[in-house]
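Why do we care about 3D structure at all? Because function follows from shape, and shape follows, mostly, from sequence. That is the central idea of this module. The next example makes it concrete: a single protein chain, its amino acid sequence, and then its structure expressed as tokens.
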Amino acid sequence: MLESGEHSCYILLMELDEIATRLEALGNPTRLEIYRLLVRAGDSGLPVGEIQARTEVARSTLSHHLHKLIGVGLVTQERQGTVLLCRANFPVMRDTLGFLVDQCCAETNQESAA
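And the structure:
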């Protein structure tokens, strides 16, 4: 059984691993370009064919990169008839960025409170 402090540490480590995995996926220039396109597209998302046309990445390579982004939760896919629509998962994006932003200047704030 985990003590209260150990539980918080365990959750932080789980979250840290998850955030690191997401950032690692975005560390590839092609995936970052794909993700940026989807973020710019907003809630409407983009069809896979449009992503392929804009990035000029081969379909098989694009599929590999999209599956990596989907696997870490940054992107969702939905089939609409014959179209495969991709969207940035904005709650996951906010969670990932928020994890870093929430830590901004935390040590400086602790020092000034002491």
